[in-house]
Write a structure and sequence with these properties.
Elements (H helix, E strand, L loop, with lengths): L12 H22 L4 H28 L5 H24 L4 H29 L10
Helix pairs in contact: 1-2, 1-4, 2-3, 3-4
Length: 138
């Protein structure tokens, strides 16, 4: 079971907060699997994750466009892959609701995306738009 860790933070507060939410959704799914909840509950949790993930990816892609991020096209391919993996995760869990390792696989893939692609974007923001980088008082 993977949990949010400050080492996963990329330094863009809004994105980091959304990544934390994604981990909360994943934790709820893992708990549901562990409790052997009926499919309709697991399916509901998966649809919540899917909807939130699509929202998050749209926010990131909007930031890419606004800041004219040079690698935005490549980053979009990573996002498309995440959406594909979500569909595969749901299909596999429907066939085998005790597939804890499937959620772990998705988490590991998501973490790799955060640690590589999202971190590269954060470095770009830090250099080009420093006001967007780091924590700022409300």
């Amino acid at each position: 079971m993977m949990k949010w860790d400050s080492d996963l933070a990329i330094g863009i507060e809004a994105i980091d907060n959304q990544h934390k939410q994604i981990f909360e959704h994943l934790l709820a799914i893992e708990n549901s699997i562990a409790k052997r909840d009926p499919w309709h509950i697991l399916h509901f949790l998966l649809s919540q994750l899917s909807a939130y993930m699509k929202f998050h990816l749209a926010v990131e892609e909007s930031l890419h466009e606004i800041t004219r991020y040079p690698d935005q096209q490549e980053h979009r391919y990573g996002h498309a892959r995440i959406i594909e993996l979500m569909g595969e995760l749901e299909d596999k869990l429907q066939r085998n609701p005790s597939g804890e390792n499937l959620v772990g696989f998705f988490e590991a893939w998501f973490v790799r995306h955060v640690l590589s692609d999202d971190r590269e974007f954060a470095l770009y923001i830090k250099e080009e738009f420093p006001a967007l980088y780091g924590r700022h008082p409300a």
